[in-house]
Amino acid sequence: MRLGVEFVSGFVVGGLIGWALDRWFGTRPWFMVVFFLLGAAAGTVNLIRAARRLQAEAEASEEQNSSTRG
Amino acid sequence: MAAGGEAHSPLEQFEITRLVDLNLGGVDISFTNSALWMVIIVALSTLFFVIATSRAAIVPGRLQSIAELSYEFVAGLLRDNAGKEGMKYFPFVFTIFIFVLMANMLGMVPYSFTVTSHLAVTATMSLIIILGITVLGLVKHGFGFFHVFLPSGVPMWLAPLLIVIEVISYLTRPVSLAVRLFANMMAGHTTLKVFAGFVVALGVAGVVPLLFVVALTALEVLIAFLQAYIFTILTCIYLHDAFHPHH
């Protein structure tokens, strides 16, 4: 759930920006296509960052555990 | 159909009802059940902390330990994720944590209304947070804040593409912050009501879904806390960017 939202929101925001720009310039569907892809990239970036954060947290708590045990 | 003659939809719990009709210059600002619960949340949490800290002792009593524990918890989150500078904004982050936690937990009380299961509420909170942090970053760093959008060590020919991607990524923050909380609360409460409906509909065999509901309720309490925690920790992480725009 946590990672899924990060990923999907990239598509949603990218698509919305493209849709708004298309309405503005009357260039349907080109901006939407481009920004949907950019949104996909942004979603992937979000996903990687969130996953890294989770991993760092997991490693930190692991270290804490081993240091309190040892 | 449904036993008892009344058909209750599992989504009925999310209905907004007007308690007091108010109109200000053509804008509908009626006092709704959602607003009432928000007032209850604020009043209850204020009351709790006033009572808990009124007789501060060196050896804390039960209430005082809860207050101290929640302080330590949020202070630790903020220090670890936003750094020392972030501690200045402790009151803000603490308020967010307590508000979301109380909203989620009071939502678990039967017949109550879950404020955070409405996108309007969570979206407003996340927009205020992100806008506030953006303004804070701009005030602190001026134009330098836009380094958020350009990771260091990127070749120049890639910069235009990356800046667009980073801007979109930045704009997803309020969306994911709001949707995560809203979706979790809404989905959880709907599932609970659906299973509770099975209990009535299945008669004697309803014992099986009843066990499920008991287990799900425990899970929902966990999620109520977890979502408040995630909302807070993400606020701290975003706050970190306001102080350190360089990745």
TrEMBL record, chain B:
Cellular component annotations (GO), alphabetically ordered: plasma membrane; proton-transporting ATP synthase complex
InterPro entries named among the record's database cross-references: ATP_synth_F0_asu (IPR000568), ATP_synth_F0_asu_AS (IPR023011), ATP_synth_F0_asu_bact/mt (IPR045083), F0_ATP_A_sf (IPR035908)
Bilayer topology: Multi-pass membrane protein
Keywords, alphabetical: ATP synthesis, Cell membrane, CF(0), Hydrogen ion transport, Ion transport, Membrane, Transmembrane, Transmembrane helix, Transport
Main location: membrane
One GO MF term attached to the UniProt entry: proton-transporting ATP synthase activity, rotational mechanism
Entry's transmembrane regions: 35-58, 89-113, 119-139, 146-172, 192-214, 221-240
Subcellular localization, as worded in the UniProt entry: Cell membrane; Membrane
Family classification: Belongs to the ATPase A chain family.
Function: Key component of the proton channel; it plays a direct role in the translocation of protons across the membrane.
HAMAP family in alphabetical order: ATP_synth_a_bact
Name of the protein in question: ATP synthase subunit a
Origin species: Zavarzinia aquatilis
